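Risk register update: the risk that structure generation would not scale has been downgraded. Supporting records follow, first protein first.
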Amino acid sequence: MNDMLKYELKKYILKLSLLICIIVLILLNFVKVFELYYYTGGGRAVLSGNAVQGTDILYDKYSGKITDEKINGLKTELANAEQMLKEYGIIEEPIEGTYCGYPYGDVNLFKDLISSYEYAFLYSNKSAEITENARANAEFYSDKSRYEYRLSKLYEDCYKGRSLDGYYQSEGHKAVFDYKFSALLSMFIIVLAISPIVSKEYVIGYNKLISSSGKRGSVMLAKLTAAAIYTFAVTLILFASDMVYFQLIYGFDGFSAPIYALQEFEMCPFNITLFGALVITFVLRLVFLLMFTFLVTAVSSFCKNDIISMVVSVAAGFLLVIGSELLPGVLNPTTLIGPTELFTNMNVCNILDFPVFNVVVTLTEVILLAVVFAVVSVRRGMKCC
């Protein structure tokens, strides 16, 4: 089996052309990340000279654990900025002694920071309120509705005892949770590498040799294993490039902070850190791409021409991405690619009177599909090879 696996990797995966293609896609991924930053992340303002790097200094100064010293410093600097705004008014040219070049800009920045501090201070109150409401609902529904009672208890368990004592920038994390382009690039390179993994045997005439060897099952398992290893490597490489690019452009901080330290994720039902959320994002994407990989191997097992296999695999990927948008969110496999919704709201469905997180249902669906495609690949491949 090990020799077969090495042979399959060398034959279909470890090729210079694929390596060059991956490098090109990594560069293309950077272009897309920068385009996202330019049009939606404030990059246009930075490059046009309407903002300066002083804002980064400001956020570095006041991010992290909130202290009395930071609070007093923030109040003092806000008062100074408001005084400068009264003195200079709305100006067109940047001046010295400001963080972003303009007094009104500094005032807005300080007010945003104060709002973020207030969010952190008041979050424990909101957590307590949600928990108390959930407890009251559970008591009300205890003898009326098993599902509503269990849902209320789930809310109580998820949100009780939460508190915050720090402030962290959110732009990088928000962007990476919602970023899907690198997953599409992964699908593309998977099609290039995996679509001929069975169909190519017909083109070069190896199908008869494999059939006569009596090891068709072992060969197909080696092919699936090689495809899975390649998918893991490609997913890891492109996801790592996401992390590097977003770190360089946006900057990440607070990896050990709870995800609800970012105000956009205040209702996240999971008590995980920001680093944990990034790990979950990678794992969910990997599961989706493994399912797609086994779909491609299944297509390849039905085709006797590698070009046809590639075309059908591309069409299958297109239908998977476009067609899945017509499905309800809980049944849409592509929701695993960009899990922003997962971290934003409590999304559950009723299964036999038990509240089950939507992501669990979607993940189960995708895993079952992956198993089905893998079984189809093996059974069909054993008949053909």
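Supporting record for the second protein:
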Amino acid sequence: MQARVDADFATELLEHDAPALGLEGISALVREGLLLLHRRARELTAAAEYEKFYGGQPAPLPDGVIPVDAD
């Protein structure tokens, strides 16, 4: 897998972001980025499935849970 990244952005990733995240090197940064994309895609897929299943209505609360807007 290959990607082109602007040199200034790559420098910022390596000098600032990687140390803040405890990552070492480009490969670790790329892996972390791909994991984040993967998680986000799964979240969006799950949200779409809930929407489809409940027909646009809010999902029911579990038994015993009081809605936030209840008096």
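The CA atoms of residues 23 and 29 lie 7 Å apart. On this basis the risk owner (M.S.) recommends closing the item.
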